[in-house]
UniProtKB/TrEMBL annotation:
Name the record gives this protein: CBPM Carboxypeptidase
BP terms from Gene Ontology: peptide metabolic process; protein processing
InterPro entries: CarboxyPept-like_regulatory, CARBOXYPEPT_ZN_1, CPM_N, Peptidase_M14, Peptidase_M14_domain
Active site: 273 (proton donor/acceptor)
Species this protein is from: Sterrhoptilus dennistouni
Annotated GO MF terms: metallocarboxypeptidase activity; zinc ion binding
């Protein structure tokens, strides 16, 4: 109890790198059973990229419990998200065990919070400004939100240490849902940020296979925000009906983080623009926290949308890299099970056919009726067992091109077409008999 005041004493001001680290270490010391502090890497100038994980099992992934993340301060001069995530941490740890909703949320979700992805840029912003400053970029002068591999073009930008750290982080965790927090507008923006004629770019909208889910996610945040839902934007020239926008419809962006999460990370991410002023005066921070508090919590709950489960062999052993997708929702990089054979698919309430495919074996189809389980903090559970697969046969990783151009959407998904291996085998046998 003596440690709690030190961890909870968070005022509304801007916190520099040393203060952020001190706060996170204090929370970790005060709540060791609920939190886990770790660094995913270092910035160009050698600052740690700290993440605080919160949950009933904070140190490691637990089967059935989805992984969620918030990332802020990707642009070093966009500062509101950086501070409200510190206050979100403070709210979560002090509410756990007292507030039944927060307690159930953290008992059934592992929440990762990165207050700053670009600490060098923040420290380089010597004179706060509502508009552009050089602190937007990392120490090498690169825009981190133009630095990821792109789903539509060959991004020639040199991958930065901060970007590489996030890419490895996404690869090593089973993230299901995410948001990155920015400033300079007031809107919830969703994928795709880039596009081509197949995704609708000729009509000014780049539509993903899960467009309905992304619209729901953006509306969830906007409608629970104090004013974002009004859609008035930051001036009379810029309006966003309902406080949301398709990223491409707003402006085309190559190498963005939210598209990378969705395509390569199997993680649904949206971009939250939280303030018209990029770096507002510190005396406005408390107001920003109050405006976003409910929306931040309601958005985390959406990680429990849809369906989840395990894919196992005849002996009950998990099958990694099995493809599991909803029929009619193809992904160029097929969505695959993790090392524990788990899958998580975010889907709105309704009836779906879920297709599980172990390459080389017959696919399994199951029709599911998905309710809205966000209030119960658990997606619908649907497991798949392949009786013809033994633990001696391991599934090969499904192919995923480094530049998955989305003309592939015009073809059938790898998860819903007949198993290619069987067709090839039949052809070979026919040739032999002839």
């Amino acid at each position: 109890l003596c440690l709690v005041p030190a961890a909870a004493a968070l005022d509304f001001k801007y916190h520099h790198s040393e203060e952020v680290e001190e706060f996170l270490r204090g929370v970790r010391a005060a709540y060791p059973a609920l939190t886990h502090l770790y660094s995913i890497g270092r910035s160009v100038e050698g600052r740690d990229l700290w993440v605080l994980a919160l949950g009933r099992f904070p140190t490691h992934h637990k089967i059935g419990i989805p992984e969620f993340k918030y990332v802020a301060n990707m642009h070093g001069d966009e500062t509101v998200g950086r501070e409200i995530l510190l206050h979100l941490i403070d709210f979560l740890v002090t509410s756990y065990g007292r507030d039944p909703v927060i307690t159930r949320l953290l008992n059934n979700t592992r929440v990762h919070i990165m207050p700053t992805m670009n600490p060098d840029g923040f420290e380089a912003t010597k004179v706060p400004d509502c508009y552009y400053t050089r602190g937007r970029y990392n120490k090498n002068g690169e825009d981190l939100n133009r630095n990821f591999p792109d789903a539509f073009e060959n991004n020639s930008a040199s991958i930065q240490p901060e970007t590489r750290a996030v890419m490895d982080w996404i690869k090593n965790e089973t993230f299901v849902l995410s948001a990155n927090l920015h400033g300079g507008a007031l809107v919830a923006s969703y994928t795709f940020d880039n596009g081509n004629p197949v995704t609708g770019s000729l009509n000014g909208y780049s539509k993903s296979p899960d467009d309905d889910v992304f619209i729901h996610l953006a509306k969830t945040y906007s409608s629970n925000h104090a004013s974002m839902y009004k859609g008035t934007g930051c001036d009379n020239r810029q309006t966003f009906p309902g406080g949301i926008t398709n990223g491409y419809s707003w402006y085309q962006l190559e190498g963005g983080m939210q598209d990378y999460n969705y395509v390569w990370g199997q993680c649904f991410e949206i971009t939250l623009e939280l303030s018209c002023c990029k770096y507002p005066p510190a005396n406005q921070l408390e107001g920003f926290w109050k405006d976003n508090k409910v929306a931040l919590i309601e958005y985390i709950k959406q990680v429990h949308l849809g369906v989840k489960g395990q894919v196992t062999d005849k002996n009950g052993n998990p099958i990694p890299n099995a493809i599991v997708e909803a029929k009619g929702r193809p992904h160029v990089c097929p969505y695959r099970t993790n090392e524990q054979g788990e899958y998580f698919l975010l889907l709105l309430p309704g009836t779906y056919v879920i297709n599980a495919t172990v390459p080389g074996f017959k696919s399994m189809l199951k029709t599911v009726e998905i309710p809205d389980n966000t209030g119960n903090f658990s997606a619908l559970k649907q497991d798949f067992s392949f009786p013809e697969v033994s633990d001696k046969i391991r599934s090969r990783v499904a192919s995923c091109p480094k530049i998955p151009l989305y003309q592939e959407l015009t073809r059938a998904s790898a998860a819903v077409k007949p198993t290619v291996h069987i067709l090839v085998l039949m052809t070979v046998m026919l040739v032999i008999f002839k």
